[in-house]
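Session log. Operator J.P. requested a structure for one protein chain; no other inputs attached. Running the standard single-chain path with token output.
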Amino acid sequence: MDAPDPTDVPPDPADVAEGVPAAPQGRPSDLTGRPHSVSHLRRYVSLRGPNARMWMAVSYFSAVLTVGFLLVAGSLGREVFTGEATAGSLSLWGSAAVVMAFMGPGSNVIVLRGLPQRITRQGISADSDGVTVLQERKWWFTGEGTFIAWPEIRRVREVTTGARRHEFIEFVLETPRSQAELPNWAETAEGLGLEPAEPDAATQFYVQVPRDHGEKILRMVERTSPLPAVVERDPLAG
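Structure written below.
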């Protein structure tokens, strides 16, 4: 069973009592090596939300349908080999087997292909070098992420958009990044139907976060960045 995600941000070093050893510095983020875990990073906010549980439920349901297909196929085969089959029973069990084949094994292929990426740990981490947006490696999913050094970051802020008021963290960078260099779950302003707030920015992308996680990420960036002013908050926000 996986250890629980550290979804909160540690306190400021100034708040630690005298005599208590300071927390060790996090190692630099390195996406070229084997991503065993993000637990060694100094600060980390998990972005894994209820969608992971939904995908697990879908996989269990797909497995149940596959068992149903095997039972139907077994019943059909038994009737054929024992000579008890009639035209009506063959038609009934044959139709049921075809339907269950699509709903069971067919759905398993689709679900299992994307399941590791949907249930793996993913989040935003920050250390002395910069910010990493990543999904950890799991099973046949190789993991992906992007590292952003502090000098590259012009602004980080929380944005709420869409009919369902989804929360996103916006990253505005001074350096160009191609779409291939960003995680495939990162959004663009055009994709969200937003006007780029800073058209002269080299790169601007958005990462959806679970509800009420935006402020945690902003506090993490403020406490870790050498320039806390990169964090921008909406003055009208409660």
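Operator note: The first strand starts at residue 43 and ends at 46.
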